[in-house]
Structure formats: C-alpha cells, structure tokens
Give the backbone structure.
Amino acid sequence: MNPRTGAKAQVAFDRKELGIILGLYGRMVAAGEWRDYAMSFLSDVAIFSVFRRAAEHPIYRIEKRPDLRLRQGQYSVVGADGRILRRGHDLSTVLRVLERKLIRPID
C-alpha cells in the first residue's frame, strides 16, 4: 500500500529475476523457439509472457505471485492452455521446465 496515494503497490520482477528470465529468453530466441515477449505488472501478480509470433496468444507465462511464497512457491510457469507446468520457490529451478526445449539430439 502506497501511503501517499492509498493505492496498492504493483508486483514486479527485481533485477536478478529479470536477468534470469531474459537470459533464458535470449537462449530461446537464438534457438528459434521464441520471438517476442510482454510484461504485465498488476497488484497481485507480475507476468512475463512469451510469444512465438507477436500477433498470437502467449505460449508460456512466467508468473510471480508473492502471496503464494509461503505455500507452494511464488514462481510458476503456465502453458498456453492455462495449466501450471511448474511451481516453486526458486525461479531458476522453475524455469528448467522450459530449458528442456533447448536440448536437442545432434544429427
């Protein structure tokens, strides 16, 4: 809560979290998997959405919900269909579910 305006503060990713997310994003862009991203900062959740093309729905959402930090973890990866693919307390561990796409067999 902001004491001057009375408005609830927004949830946002800090510099370290953004560094981890953008590092993964850069590797996925280099691999040709992802093309665009968007960020949303709301009063209860911060969302980093990943797109294969700019004009479609996000294929993944990386969410930070601080209200869940004492329960199942504040970080989660949500698929295009709305299913939670992974949830936890450590962002790097949660993002491993997406890094599996980078591992490909060598022909």
Residues 15-100 form one domain. The chain has one domain: 15-100. The mean pLDDT is 85. The two ends are 55 Å apart (CA to CA).
